[in-house]
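User: We ran a pulldown and think these components assemble together. Before we commit to crystallization trials, I'd like a predicted model of the whole complex to look at. Sequences follow.
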Amino acid sequence: MGRWRPAVETVTDPGCPRLRMTHFYWSLIVLFGVLVAGAGCGPEPCPDGSSRRADGLCYLAANGDVDTAQSLDADSDSDTDNAADTDHEPGVVIADPIRVVGFDGERETGGVLAEWTDAAILSGTVGAICGVAGVGLVDLVEGTTLAVRPTPPCLRMAEHDGLLVASDRRSQLTLLDVRNPPEIREAGFVIFDPNAIRHEDIAVHGGRIIVGWHGLGARIYDPDARLLGTLPATDAFAVGLHEDRAVISDGEELVLWDVTDPSAASELSRVPLPGEGRDIEFDGARVAVAMGGAGVGVWDVRDDTLVARGSKVVPGAGLSVALDGDDVWIGSWEHTVLLEVREDGIATIGHETPRFSAMGVAAAGGTALVADWHGHMTLKKDPDACSPEIILGEALFFSDADPSQRIRIENHGEVSLEWSVTEVGSGFSVSDSAVTVSPGGVEVVQIEGPPGHAATDRLTWSSNDADEPSGEISLVPANQGVGAAHADFTLQGFTWPDRDASEYTLSAHQGKVVVLDYFALF
Amino acid sequence: MRERYSEDDVAVWLVNPEDSLDEAYGFVGDVGVELPVLLDVGGVNYRGYPPDAGEAFGPFPVQVVIDQRGVIRYLAFQNDPTALRAVVDELLEDG
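Assistant: Here's a predicted model for the assembly, 617 residues in total across the polymer chains.
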């Protein structure tokens, strides 16, 4: 994912700024808090047993939810802890530091589906998104769309120094000049070898472009489309480039290359990759890899060697990754997760729920831009965010053998969370229709499903979390495991190139083996 | 997959749980797949499977094999063509 490096490094405040306030102001704030809500957002609300770090985040002691660097070298199966389940272990920041600046977008843009899948940050105030609708520019201060250019459908995008490369999902790369937003100007294009099926990932740095081609390895070009060299790989799904170093995923390995002369590139370091390489971000000193079900892995580059820093499984599979100093942002189907690289590993410090799915993420200077399928979401790391932060699942699965389920409501914020059920499917009963969750706390509500529950139903809820004032949980009958009869269905379908819809009924195909292959468009 | 088996023995259906016919048609045309594409509107089928508890790529299976009597014999959370073919071969052998 593209990334802009700020000219001025983010300054980490050496001390808690609020502690420098005078006692008089403190008194006012505390009094105001007591009068208004019974709890303010001063230094006191850090939950019991935790303390406020220099950067303002509430922090529980040490050494809990931190994966060791060794976990990357060991069997990846051992690294199974789930960020959502372990955030209240010691060593974790429990005050969610993510503020939603804004979400903007429509299902369709300019008459075509938006389907934003990648993001880049161009400056402190402007970002870019890439999708079926083309390439768009985003105001990162307001979280709004500045412009959309209907280039060929875009799957992946990379940017450096105003040179933006957008891919068309097949074999063409379009170069765009975005130095004068909201202008998006075509600056040339690269057409690749017609033998190529498609490319998987691209990165741009220092006027050079690296492209991971399906089955052809990673190739490096100049902006005039001249091929400078090829890095052999069986599957270069994800690529990163910084000055004269390139990092590519090669099947189940991660490889660092010296590309000073791309026509005579040399391999410097090769390490096992615990999952598939879906996206790479490489800033010259550090590599972060989105690894699908294996989450995210981080390596430092020391003396031209890849040195493991740790890995972390994230809810909903790591799809895309962005590096911002010691902060690592991960986009997944379910969450945008903010992680922190520490001396002893990687820890989760915040989540935000995308409106649809965090397909692509880019970050710089504490701001993250998420390509959120039908729109884009701008997020800001803000230790002073004074809000409850609700985290809960989107689906529960009921069966006659297991009709009782738990709704786990977590509050990652600094203020009490008020959560209540607004509506629930008929036949379902909940143990509490309203709960209060203390800062950093968890409450569990039991929900009983009716016997013979056959169709998906839902529970809708409301909360005082400004980012998520309402939501719903799907109540799903889960009677379709291996060994069970598949529920009969009749679905509309077509067989290309015939566009006319016809009906497909499972029971009409008894006597045949039926293979269902689920897919989505991205 | 399609080339490997007779249509009389095996039906291979691509199922799209989230898009409209127009969207799915456009995509399938792009990649030129001539298999039936079914629209599982609202993901009703899709969400009926138990979620994966472990190391899955996604929370729901992506491939399902149903035997000649309508019983689910295989749920996969990752695309593993070798395992899928093995299950189908076994079912065809058993008749």
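Chain B has two helices and four strands. That may be worth checking against your pulldown data before setting up trials.

User: Thanks, that helps.
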